[in-house]
Amino acid sequence: MIVGVGIDVVDVARFLATIERTPRLRERLFTPAERDLPPASLAARFAAKEAIAKALGAPGGMSWQDATVHRVSGGPPVVDLTGSVAAVADRLGITSWHLSISHDAGIASAVAVAER
To answer: What is the pTM of this model?
Structure first.
């Protein structure tokens, strides 16, 4: 049963300008496993985290550090939830995620579907 769906779109150039203006933002938004990815991939990861939050109903108090999006060779991306984000997912009974991310022509996008 689908519990929530989230979608987000990010302008890659605008996102990168924001990261450059606020250097500590990279550390605040991304886990160590994500921080060194290429710019378009970072924007896509940010869109994915936003989509995940929306699928959870966008409650306050969640940390960006509590969601990591991993690349899987030959498969869809995988989300690893910990801490505050995992607690919300557990409370909602979410047992699986479907995540799609893309970046092309200066736009990064993501769709997240939460199931129980």
So the answer is: 0.92
